[in-house]
Amino acid sequence: MTLQETPNASRLHIGIFGKVNSGKSTLLNALTSQEVALVSEKKGTTTDPVYKAMEINGLGPVVFIDTAGFEDTSDLGIKRIEKTKLVTKKADMAIVIFCDTDIDEGISWVHSLKKQNVKVIVVVNDMENNNAPEIVSKLKAELDGRIIVVNALKKHNIEEVKNALIENAPEEKINITGNSVHENDIVMLVMPQDIQAPKGRLILPQVQTIRELLDKKSIVISCTAEKIDETLAALHKAPDLIICDSQVFKMVYDKKPKESKLTSFSVLFAAYKGDIESFLNGAKAIDSLSGNSHVLIAEACTHAPLGEDIGRIKIPNLLRQKFGNDLSIKVVSGTDFPKDLAKYNLIIHCGACMFNRKYMLSRIEEARHQGVPITNYGIAIAHLQGILKFLSFLP
């Protein structure tokens, strides 16, 4: 797993875009007050995006992403630009830097980012060649809104950039368990610790869910699948909600008290990181599959698959039991998401705990654009097991 896939997934993602040698890396260093990115007069110094997590007073936890120049003409330029385009799918906000009067391509990137619902801060980096006023004048003729002039090297006006980020930060606040869990609710977590779970630790969705439930002052009790009966017997009343791992959906459903609501970590993350309605509609496509169909299974993290892997073993087994061994299933991981989705009859995505919501929503939108239904692990498993209609989704 890479840095950008793990602790940064829940942070506000801020991409820094601009031409080669426009001062992107220098601005990142100024914003973070650290030498995060390598700075050089040589073109193409930044190749792969550079991620830096930090806290900004008034904005909270963020991750800045320094990108390669978007008119990189080096031998690896095309691949670098593709990496930069991928960052636009992850960015909640963007800083676009202009450093000379040739603004056309930068303007194009501003419009493209806004089309992707990215909040854009326009910055002119005054590199002391006395052309900043001319750049600002040209930008004002093409763009609405504020333009901030900085000297990234001298750290001039950096606070104004931070203030602009605070003022324009997205206001959307989504939590994992929605609005249906309250103080003093009893929430039971059924968490199988199979060979995929890291030794001595819980997986990220479990940790994040527990923390949120504690913040809500609910009463949290946890158990493994084989201890469901004993745990229920130890409670003075039935849990208000049971959250389980998707792979034990059927077992928990058969054992749960009638009055207890049921969902899974994966289903909760379907709403937290994605679009629950798109996933529910996508699950209906399962019934239209046949032995000649093509299914894409996409997992956010990059890990060595083991014998109990839910995406590579368990879901394919469930599908092939229903539609036969000729069903074509392709598995991709990390950022390896095909550009051409049209050849697939269905996409089944993991809970995306390693992605930020913006990136997951971009994948859903790409599937919609190409006319391919998409659902997620938990919803697909519940549908295949016939219990989807009995689940509580808490979007």
Description:
This protein is an alpha/beta fold and 395 residues long. It folds into three domains: 3-168, 3-Layer(aba) Sandwich (Rossmann fold); 186-268, 3-Layer(aba) Sandwich (Rossmann fold); 281-390, Rossmann fold (3-Layer(aba) Sandwich), CATH 3.40.50.11410. It has 13 helices and 14 strands. It has a six-stranded mixed β-sheet, sandwiched between helices. Mean pLDDT is 88; it is low at 1-7 and 37-42.
Architecture blueprint of SSEs:
Layout: E1 12-18, H1 24-32, E2 50-56, E3 60-66, H2 77-90, E4 93-98, H3 104-115, E5 119-125, H4 132-142, E6 147-150, H5 158-168, E7 186-190, H6 204-215, E8 219-223, H7 228-234, E9 241-244, H8 249-255, E10 261-264, H9 265-273, H10 276-283, E11 294-299, H11 310-323, E12 328-333, E13 346-349, H12 357-369, E14 374-376, H13 377-384
Parallel strand pairs: 1-3, 1-4, 4-5, 5-6, 7-8, 7-9, 9-10, 11-12, 11-13, 13-14
Antiparallel strand pairs: 2-3
Helix pairs in contact: 11-13
